Each structure stands twice: as C-alpha cells, then as structure tokens.
Task: structure prediction
Amino acid sequence: MHSTNISNPRVITIEKYAAKITTIKKEIRSERLQKQTKQRSYKYMNNIIEQDHRGIERITDNMLGFKHYKSACSTIQGIEAMNMIRKKQANTKTVSDEIKMINQIYEVA
Result:
C-alpha cells in the first residue's frame, strides 16, 4: 500500500527557468512522471515550496554532491520523512507507526 504523499505529483510549480522546464518534459517523456502531470511556471507562486525545501538545501549544501540520482532521491526522501514526522504531518501516534511509514517510503518490508 502506497501513501498518497509519495505518489506522482498532480501539478508541479516552478519558477520560469528553462532548465527546470526542460527537465520536467524529459521526465514525462521517460515516464518517470505521469503524462497528466501539469506544469505551472509563475514567478512568485513557488515561494511557499521554495521556503519548505530550504531545510533540505541547508543539509545537502554541505555535501559534495550526489554521484547518482538514486542516492539523491533516497537522501531527500529521508529528510522529507523526518520533516513530516517533526511537523506532525505523518499521522503517526507511536514510534512503530513512524518506522512503518519510513519503511513504506523506502518500500522495505
């Protein structure tokens, strides 16, 4: 059973930056994103999202970078899982519920 928090996005909001627009189109062509995924490019609409992932940038900026896409995804998934638990967005009541949620994210079990 997959959580709705880790499914493909319905809408992606990005600032008007050509490289990001190209990347999203490439991800749709390679079928990593669904064809129904809509893309919005507005200058200020993405500010809330930018603020939210500032914590990820703070953690990953100290690293030398990722050699592989898979390791970057795993690291970001872990950071996001911990943020969800901290913000009480994970709907978990016990530590074992939190472990189950993290195992679902990493598709362990």
Q: What stands out?
A: Residues 54-109 form one domain. The chain is about 50% helix and 5% strand. The first strand starts at residue 11 and ends at 14.
